Amino acid sequence: MPEFRNPAPTVDVVILLPGDRVVLVHRKNPPLGWALPGGFVDEGEKLEDAAVREAREETGLAVVLSEQFLAYSDPRRDPRRHTISTVFVGRADGEPRGGDDAADARAFPWAGLPSGVVFDHDQILADVRRYLLTGARRRL
Amino acid sequence: MPEFRNPAPTVDVVILLPGDRVVLVHRKNPPLGWALPGGFVDEGEKLEDAAVREAREETGLAVVLSEQFLAYSDPRRDPRRHTISTVFVGRADGEPRGGDDAADARAFPWAGLPSGVVFDHDQILADVRRYLLTGARRRL
Fold first, then answer.
1. Which of A29, A82, A86, B78 has the fewest Cβ atoms nearer than 10 Å?
2. What part of B 95-134 touches A (C-beta under 8 Å)?
3. Rounded distance, CA B88 to CA B108, Å?
4. In 3-state terms, chain A is what percent helix, strand and coil (to 5)?
5. How far is B72 from chain A (nearest CA, A)?
6. Which mean pLDDT values do the consecutive 10-residue runs of chain A (140 residues) have?
7. Distance separating alpha carbons of residues B112 and B97, to the nearest angstrom
8. What is d(CA A118, CA B24) in angstroms, rounded to the nearest whole number?
């Protein structure tokens, strides 16, 4: 099969910690700002495995995934290139520690999320929060 | 950003027709057999737009998507290369007509799906059917 230029598959992980908190990382590379832990899916790697790997690399946390949420694919969601992110929800214990592409990793209470969240991650966080509270998924 | 070799994002669409029927296409190219309508996502194209486009190209039907279901990413799901398929559910009226990569397109009753369904589309069909009947999504 010829190789076409495709959008790049990525994952992002909403890591829930005890105390109604969620983990964000501060990016080392542009766009700078807070973001969900995540990254590119490797050739030969399942989405679920990529999500657990990226969470571990960027936060030090061993995440147990509970759910595949939704995929976000707007071509403008990443200024660098067209990415399609499948979002997972998972749980972990302990405190996050920034690593790899993350200069910092911190747990925020849902009620006190930082400003300056990059990409469409503010939208993802709002969608997941609503889903956790109501069971309602974003409709098409 | 350097270009890595990534899995290729695809879509598949479970098209529901009146009379509790679902649309399958008979593939023109290997692997030969019945499959869900679907295909590769173009650079710059949203998943939803790819799903509507592929459904139209392969079945002639104007599909109204109702739901983004789940993404399937096992590296062995397609014998040709690693694809990650995001599955949509939608509705249409009229009768399907094969086109593009589909030699044939037909509506099957859920109770009478054909044998020889290729890829992991038998699993996807079973997962979607259970979801439509019970509201339960496949867990991780």
1. A29
2. none
3. 18
4. 20, 35, 45
5. 8
6. 78 97 95 96 97 97 97 96 97 94 93 95 97 86
7. 19
8. 40
Which residues make beta-bridge pairs with B1? none
Q: Say if the Cβ atoms of B44 and A82 lie within 8 Å.
A: yes
- Say if CB A117 and CB A34 are below 8 A apart: yes
- pLDDT value at position B1? 47
- Cut 0.90: pTM above it: yes
Residue B5: pLDDT band (50, 70, 90) is confident
Percent residues over pLDDT 70 in chain B: 96
Helix (H, G, I), strand (E, B) or coil at A101: coil
Is the bond preceding residue B31 a cis peptide, omega within 30 degrees? yes
- What is d(CA A88, CA A55) in angstroms, rounded to the nearest whole number? 11
- Let me know: does A15 contact A22? Beta carbons within 8 Å: yes
Q: Are A102 and A58 in contact, with CB atoms under 8 Å apart? A: yes
Count each helix (H run) and each strand (E run) in chain A, helices first.
2, 7
Q: What is the CA radius of gyration of chain B?
A: 14
Please give the distance of CA B136 from its chain centroid, rounded to a whole number.
19
pLDDT value for B138: 77
Q: Which of A45, A86, A140 sits opposite B71 (nearest CB)?
A: A86
Give the pLDDT confidence of A40-53 residue by residue, as tens digits.
Answer: 999 999 999 999 99
Interchain CB distance below 8 Å, B46 and A74: yes
Across B39-46, average pLDDT: 97
* Per-residue confidence (pLDDT) for residue A101, from 0 to 100: 84
Question: Nearest CA to CA, how far is B68 from chain A (Å)?
Answer: 7
